[in-house]
Design goal:
There is one protein chain. The chain has about 250 residues and is an alpha+beta fold. The protein folds into two domains: about 80 residues, Ubiquitin-like (UB roll), CATH 3.10.20; about 120 residues, [2Fe-2S]-binding domain (DNA polymerase, domain 1). It is built from seven helices and seven strands, in the order ββαβββααααββαα. Strand 3 and strand 4 form a beta hairpin. Helix 2 crosses helix 5. It starts with a strand and ends with a helix.
């Protein structure tokens, strides 16, 4: 099939590409425009890893031909404005809502699309909006809290009142996880704790900047999870961990 020229508006900029009309938008974004935020997961629009905003609504990009794009495209790289992260991005950091990171950018885009349509969604509405996003890491409770925080609400419908900023710890009393000189050797930065957690903690080995919002390369079994109630999370996460360990590596 001969190539055709297309003009797209991506993250506020006019971009020209030349490709076959049935080329998936995801391929154009990643390979032609160099945007690594949208991820390839299933190739059928079922897992949410490739979600972008098209005309303000979250849409899978892996099964959408570039010739069918009918509105401005925003990827996770284009959410920030004026040097500030989008509220959803910031809330994901605050709540430590990412783990492996592969699905995170798609979930962030789905949440951003939801908040464009509903400024104050309920917890149930958040769960329903993210039902099409797959995650194997079990951070669903934190993801829901992050989206509600971005919307200015807490689980249960209570309005979020930001706490006053905490003062610095005395130099003689650093957290147990961190030596007086800073982060532990080989560990990542100390981050603010999720809501209800008494103290900060390390996120593990240092990872490239942006992994929380765009994710790192990850291979493995992916399965659909319903966003469970908080009291079920530990049991479900433990079962998923046992299952993943029994699966042959690919």
């Amino acid at each position: 099939m001969p190539e055709t020229g297309f003009r797209l508006t991506v993250n506020g900029a006019e971009r020209s590409v030349s490709c076959e009309p049935d080329t998936p938008l995801l391929d154009v974004l990643r390979h032609d425009l160099g945007l690594a935020g949208p991820r390839f997961g299933c190739g059928m629009g079922l897992c949410g890893a490739c979600f972008v905003l098209i005309g303000g609504r979250a849409r899978a990009s892996c099964d959408l031909p570039v010739s069918a794009v009918d509105g401005p495209v925003i990827t996770v790289e284009g959410l920030a404005a004026g040097g500030r992260l989008h509220p959803v991005q910031q809330a994901f950091i605050d709540e430590q809502a990412a783990q492996c990171g592969y699905c995170t950018s798609g979930i962030v885009m789905a949440a951003a699309g939801l908040l464009r349509e509903r400024l104050a969604p309920t917890e149930q509405e958040v769960q329903e909006a993210l039902d099409g996003s797959l995650c194997r890491c079990g951070t669903h409770g934190r993801i829901v809290r992050a989206v509600l925080k971005a919307a200015g609400r807490a689980p249960g419908g209570q309005t979020v009142v930001p706490p006053p900023p905490a003062g610095p710890l005395p130099a003689s009393q650093p957290p147990a996880e961190v030596p007086a000189g800073g982060s532990p050797t080989g560990e990542g930065p100390m981050l603010a704790p999720p809501s209800g957690s008494p103290r900060p903690f390390s996120v593990g080995p240092v990872v490239p900047s942006g992994v929380v919002l765009a994710g790192g390369e990850h291979r493995g079994h992916v399965e659909r999870l319903v966003f469970p109630a908080d009291e079920q999370r530990a049991e479900i996460a433990e079962e998923r961990l046992r299952t993943s360990r029994q699966m042959p590596s690919r």
